[in-house]
Amino acid sequence: MGQATTPETMRAISQNIAGAPDVLKLVDTQRPVPARGEILVRVHAAGVNPADWKTRERGVFANGATPPFTLGFDVAGVVEAVGDGVTLFQAGDEVFGMPRFPHPAGAYAEYVAAPARHFALRPQGLTHIQAGALPLASLTAWQALVDTANVRPGQHVLIHAAAGGVGHLAVQIAKARGAYVIGTATASKHELLRSLGADELIDYRTQDYAESLRDVDVALDPLGGPNWARSLRTLRPGGTLVSILPPDDTFPAEEAGVRAVFMLVEPDHAGLREIASLVEDGRLRVVVDQVFPLEEAARAHTLGETGRTTGKIVLTVAP
C-alpha cells in the first residue's frame, strides 16, 4: 500500500488559534496514511477559496473541528499510494479533487489522504496549478446550474460576481448549456467575461440590476445578504435562485411564485469528470489570478480577502 520512498513527515500550513492571516504557520507534521477506499496524493497545487479564510477567521470547521488544523479543499497532484479496495486509480495517476468538503481535507500540505471517489483524473492540457484552481469553484457552479437549476438552452441566466472564482466558471458552464448569460461585475472585468462567453454585462456600481432585469430564468448568487432578495425580483414566475450562502429568509419567495434554494457543494467524482470533459473540449477554462508558494499562505489569504481578485488564487506545494 505504501512506498518506501514516501517520507513519514511533511510540510503543512497549520493554525493553532482563530484569527487574521498571520495565524497561518508552516510546520512539519505526520504524513497521512490512506485507509481502505482512500488514496494518498502528493499535492502539487492547492486552490484558495473564501471557505478557507472564513474558517481560519472563525477557527472552526462546519463539523466542529477546532485548531490545530490545516486548511484547504482544492487538490491537484499525483497519486502516491492507494488504500485497500481502490480500483479507480493507481500510483502515478495525476488527479484533482475537492475531498471531504465541508469537513477538513488538509490541502495546504505536501500530502492528502482522502476517499478515492472525491477525485478524478486531471483534465488533459491543464497544469497542476490550473487543475488546483478548479475543483471547489467548478463543482459549485456545476451543481448549482446543472444539478439544482437544470439550466436549459435558451434560458436567461444571471451570474453575480461573474469574474470571481465561482462566477467566471459559472458563466462558461451556463453558456455550454446553451443559456443566454448575464453577468454582474465591475466594468474593468467585462472584456474578460465577454471572452468567456457572457452575452450581457452589468456594472453593479453604476446600474441597478434589480430594476433593469426581468424574466430571468435562473440566478446564481455567491454573495448572499441583501443581494438574495434583490435577485429574486429579477426572476420570471417559476424562476429559480440558487444561493451558495445561507439566504435571508425575509423575502416570501414561494408567495412570489419563484423558487429560492441554498446549495452546499459536495465532493463529486461524476461532476469532476463532466468538468474535465468541458475543459478538454475547450468550453471551460480557469483563470488564475495569482500563485503563491505554500509558505506564503498568509499572503494568499490577505489578497483573497480584498475581494478584488479575478478568478482563483493558488498555492504551489510540490514542484
From TrEMBL:
Name of protein: NADPH:quinone reductase
Keyword DNA repair among record annotations: no
Give the UniProt keywords, A-Z.
Answer: Oxidoreductase
Organism domain of life: Bacteria
Q: Which GO terms describe its molecular function?
A: oxidoreductase activity; zinc ion binding
| Domain Enoyl reductase (ER), residue spans | 19-315
